[in-house]
Structure formats: C-alpha cells, structure tokens
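pasting for the record
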Amino acid sequence: MQSVSQRCAGMLVALVLAGTTAQALAWTPKFPAPPRCTVGRLGDSMTFNGIDMEIRQLRCPGSVEDILEFYRQRWPKGTEKEPGYTTSDELTPWQILTRVEHEHLMTVQVTAEGRDLVVGYLAMSKLPDPDDLPAIGRGFPALHDSVVYNDIESEDPGKKGRTLQLSNDKSKESNVIFYRNWYKDRGWTVLMDKPLGDRMHTFTFKNGAESVNLVVVQGEGKAVITAQVVNEGWW
C-alpha cells in the first residue's frame, strides 16, 4: 500500500503534532541542511491529520553523529526548564532531534544507510492552537465508532493522494461487506475484491480519475483498515 518513503514519512509526521498554512511556512525560522547533504522535497505539499507540513528528504555523506552534531552546535542547549532541543532514539533505528523556535516545531530524523551514508527527513510546522485542532478522516466512509489514527494528504503535479489508517471493533467480514456495498452502490467500478488468507481482504475501486485501494485486516478483537486514495485528474 505505501512506499518506503511514505512509511518513513509516516513515522516522522506521527511525532510532529504541529501545523500551519503553506503561506505561513514562508516566515518560519531558518532550518538549513548540513553541508554536503542532498535535499529533496517530499511532494509539493503534505498534510498530516489536517495539519500542513513542510517535509524535506535528506541524504548526507558521513555518520549519523555528524548530522546530529551539526544541529547540536546550531541549536543552543538551553536550560533544564526550557531546553534548546530534545533528543530521542526510541524509534529504532532512527535518531531524532526536535526544537521549538518562534512557535514553530523543527524535527530532524536520521538513520544510517550502508557505510558513510545518512538518510532522513527535516520537518517544520507551526505549533497548533489547542482549542482549534482539525478533525481527521473527514469525508472517508467508515463503520460507526471507527477511530482514524492517520490521515496523510499529499499533492504533486497532476496527482493528489491520501492515505488513511483506521480501526473499529467490528469483524473483518462486517467491514468487507460495508466497503463493498458503499462503493458499488455509488457506481464505482470494482477492479479487485479478493481475500488474502483468513485474516486479510483487499479491494481496488475506481471512479473516473479517482481510485481507492483498501486492505482490511482482522486483529485481536478489532479490524484495521488501510486506505490509499489517488486522484490523477487533479491539477
């Protein structure tokens, strides 16, 4: 369902509970990449759980420690009460540094790939208003009492994508019947409707330029649904 880059980006944005508009990102603090690094954008724009973010991919020669030390030198340590940055290595094998500056959150996530090569991501977003947090999963069909965990949207020239992960306490079979009927009743073409063993079922639906890939997995006492929506007619 997801590429390696999407899965890695998902791990990153799951750590970044912040957001702003694309226009506001133009007035963010300086967040350069270390020297000799190659930097690329992860799509034209990305929204995680209703929050707009700027995410850049990173490829650098050297070691993970070299990259982390670049930011440690750039960002003051601060005090115990107000640290200049925080570190984490709990998301193995990733090393993570985060810093809050002028109401913006900056996150560095890096890991070694082979010898003398570091890959990772730089993410920046504005701290959210706790009284005005966005709703997630809006517009996507789901059985009653489903919980949406991730709702990631991205935009590239000619293509708009959305990946959702959700679960509910219904059976796999109940979810399979629900999604089969929901899309068929609305005139979508069924390109795939296939069980994958006893615990998994996969669908592909299409309606004009829009397609939906769905995987329903039976867990312990719940069903987990992963959906990828792609609209190739968006300009």
